Structure formats: C-alpha cells, structure tokens
Amino acid sequence: MTNARPDVSIITLDGKTPQIHDSAFIAPGCRIIGDVSIGPEASIWYNCVVRAEVNRIVIGARSNIQDGSVVHCDGPMPGMPDGFPTIIGDDVLVGHNVMLHGCILNDRAFVGLSATVMNGAVIEGDAMLAAGAMLTQGKRIEARQLWAGSPARFVRDLDDAAIMGMRMGVAHYVENAKLHNAALKSLSLS
Q: Does this model's pTM top 0.90?
C-alpha cells in the first residue's frame, strides 16, 4: 500500500493481514482489521472501519466506502457453517455513514447515505438502496430496482439515466481519491 500513514490502522488479527492494492486510497482515520481484501483504485474514506475478525471482507476494484461507514461480517453459526462474509463487487458506491454487515453487494450496486444492509442481504448490479433505508436479513434487491424505507421495500425500477448517474459517481470517486491522496502526500512533505 503506497499511502500508509500513522493516522491509519492496518491491523493483523489471528494471522490475517489486510491485503490492500497499491492503487487503493485509504483516508486518515480508517481502521482496517483482519481478513480484508481491497482491490485496485478502491477508496475507503475518512474514519471508516472495515473489521473482519470472524469472516472475510472483500472490496472490489473502484468501489468506494464513504466517510464514517462501518463494514463487518458474521462468523459460522448453527445452520450457517460459512457464516456471513461481506462481499462488495467492483464499481460499487457506498454512501456516508452506511452499515454493511454480512451482505453481498454485486458489481455496480449503490447504497445510499446512512443505510443499513444486514446479514445475508444481496443488492444486485445496477440496483439501489435509498438513503436511510434498512435492508433486513436475507432480502434481495434485483437488478435495476430502487428500494427504500425501514424495512426497505421495492419502490420502482431504475431508468437508464439513474444507472448512468451511478456509473458517473464511481468514476468521480476514483478521481477524487487521487486528488485526496496527492493532497495528503503534499502535507507529509511539508
């Protein structure tokens, strides 16, 4: 990882060290713990916690976990010998202050600000969970659907403009991460 700093905690736990691609951006205040894999050009923003001590967490290429979010997982339990890892695909947008717990976000999924996604829930590609929503255990948002509310329910299908907006958001966060990384490097040189 090229941007390691003392204001970021990368913690090996039970022999498992986070694997972070050199091109990923990890902002100050982040805590990344245990069996975590972070892909190319992914970004973990200010004051996020990604904690994988009982299962694994995978964050794919160009995906972003925005400020103040928490990503966790769940270990094996009766009836679920594999537990609930958290698997985040490529090009996923995760808004500020989101809670992801033992869920799957397929490539190009979107999770709005302050939303919660619980164990066994799945958000398919090009699907969106609205801000403040709670996707309860085992629920599935199909491709190109918008769900909202607490508990979350289907609202409508997403049109092409909404899908394009999500893709533009991913590209924005890849570029924004480069800008923040450069600014932080210039601070460390002064």
A: yes
